[in-house]
User: Fold this.
Amino acid sequence: MKIKTLFFGITSDLVSASELQIEVDENSSVEKFKSVLKDEFSALININSYAIAVNEEYAENETLLKVGDVVAVIPPVSGG
Assistant:
């Protein structure tokens, strides 16, 4: 299934896009989704951590993705 994926901050620079359709198996977890991202976009390995939101809510690794979900990849943020 294809998951609409939004990239923010440095992650959009690393994948050269702000929005993509990412192909994952049905009933994939967020953890599996992250693995697919790192396989397809090796530059993401350079980020120590990033948050994943599903349908505008932060998601845990165990969260299962379903058709129609929108996933956001959110890099660490620092303020000053």
Summary: Strands lie at 2-7, 19-23, 51-54, 57-58, 70-74. The mean pLDDT is 92.
